[in-house]
Design a protein that fits this description.
Number of domains: 1
Strand content: under 5%
Radius of gyration: 22 Å
Number of strands: 0
Oligomer: single chain
């Protein structure tokens, strides 16, 4: 059968234009890509296990092992190492040193696994990437289909997964409440959509990739997590800016993110002061107001230890003894803001390292010299992650870090065959 006839089938998506059979490592990467939607929707905390799956296969090849510490750009690797080292130092004065040290080892372990995955993905051959483009194509639309089913059925698949888990294991768990349904899945979709869109464009047309983006947007509009929708919509703007001006667009995004966080800090102070000191009741959504109250409390605590911080993972202990106006702890487990958490726990030194890492990753992508679409997609994915982290999730949550490294590996794959033209 001719290749042209095969391309209309699922098999054709994987085999078109490939001159060799994929190896074991490539098949394992394909399994991780295909399992990503299922894990993201049914058991997002298992993202760590999903990250380990391809890593085990990657480590079986000596060239993959030797490339672990050479795949990342030197300045990015140095900043990661510096952040890990400084975080370990701050464990010494953390409110719960033993717990913080255990978390530190988990975070470093996830980082090492992520580096193995990234190194392997960056070394993939063009034939392997053509095969994996087809896998992304299928996985992306599978995610759309599963997410739609969960939205329309109020989480039928999640409830089934929980029932099977309770039946097969001694650890009972309950299904998420309707208000919490698909929150983590929506964040995973918003970020994963970017490598999928690039693969869909390569396997099909720009119109089909745009249709996929529209489908993602429609799903995010109808779920409960505003952060995922805001982040994806903002990243679409970033994509257009970076596509037109790779370096200036990337720099403008970073500058805009800094200004937004400065405005958030000032707004938190003004709003809390107006309501508590002047007795003015400002009308806004309860969730938004609570986030601003958290930020105000966090920056108050930052002022007490601005240089050295409160210690790695300190936000899980700080503020737990006091209640906010909303009946929750003053810091409900974490500040729900990446930059505020970095400064609170790691001090100014750690804050500078985190900001420098975000800048280095973004600008390295922008200056990579790859095709404009691939650069814009990668920066947009980074923007989605950072924007979600700007208002949700703790920076040390294991599943959230594993999700970041998985998508870093996926983006490394999409960059392999972008050397010609606009792709």
């Amino acid at each position: 059968m001719a290749i042209g006839a095969r391309q209309g089938t699922v098999v054709g998506l994987f085999k078109a234009k490939s001159s060799s059979q994929p190896g074991f490592t490539t098949l394992t990467l394909a399994a991780a890509i295909l399992l990503y939607p299922l894990v993201a929707l049914l058991a997002p905390k298992a993202m760590v296990a999903l990250l380990v799956l391809p890593v085990l296969a990657c480590l079986t090849a000596a060239p993959n092992r030797s490339a672990v510490f050479s795949a990342l750009p030197p300045k990015v690797l140095m900043l990661i190492a510096g952040l890990a080292a400084w975080s370990l130092v701050t464990v010494w004065w953390s409110p719960r040193p033993t717990v913080s040290l255990e978390l530190w080892f988990r975070v470093v372990g996830i980082g090492l696994c992520g580096m193995v995955l990234f190194a392997t993905a960056a070394k993939a051959s063009a034939d392997d990437v053509r095969f994996l483009d087809g896998v992304f194509f299928v996985s992306g639309w599978l995610f759309i289909a599963l997410f739609t089913v969960e939205l329309l059925s109020d989480g039928a698949l999640i409830r089934l997964a929980v029932s099977l888990w309770n039946l097969l294991t001694p650890w009972d768990t309950g299904p998420p409440t309707p208000s919490l349904l698909l929150l983590q899945g929506s964040a995973a979709l918003a970020i994963f959509a970017w490598p999928c869109m690039l693969a869909i464009r390569r396997r099909s047309t720009a119109a089909v990739a745009s249709l996929f983006a529209l489908a993602v947007t429609a799903l995010l509009v109808n779920q409960n997590m505003e952060a995922s929708l805001v982040a994806f919509a903002g990243a679409l703007v970033v994509f257009l800016a970076v596509y037109r001006f790779p370096r200036w667009g990337s720099a403008a995004f970073l500058a805009g993110l800094a200004l937004v966080n400065l405005a958030l800090a000032l707004a938190a102070f003004e709003i809390v002061s107006a309501e508590q000191q002047d007795g003015i009741n400002l009308i806004m959504s309860g969730g938004t107001k609570e986030r601003l109250y958290i930020l105000d409390y966090v920056y108050e605590k930052i002022n007490q230890h601005p240089l050295m911080g409160w210690g790695f993972d300190g936000s899980r202990a700080i503020g737990q003894e006091t209640l906010s106006n909303f009946g929750n702890a003053s810091i409900p487990l974490h500040p729900h803001n990446l930059w505020a958490q970095a400064w609170l726990e790691l001090g100014l030194i750690g804050f500078v390292l985190v900001v420098s890492l975000a800048v280095a990753v973004t600008m390295t992508i922008a200056a990579s010299g790859r095709g404009r679409t691939a650069v814009a997609v990668a920066v947009a994915a980074v923007a989605t992650y950072l924007l979600i982290g700007n208002i949700s999730y703790g920076m040390w949550q294991n599943w959230w870090l594993a999700l970041a490294w998985l998508n870093a590996g996926f983006l490394a794959l999409t960059a392999v065959r972008d050397g010609a033209g606009d792709a």
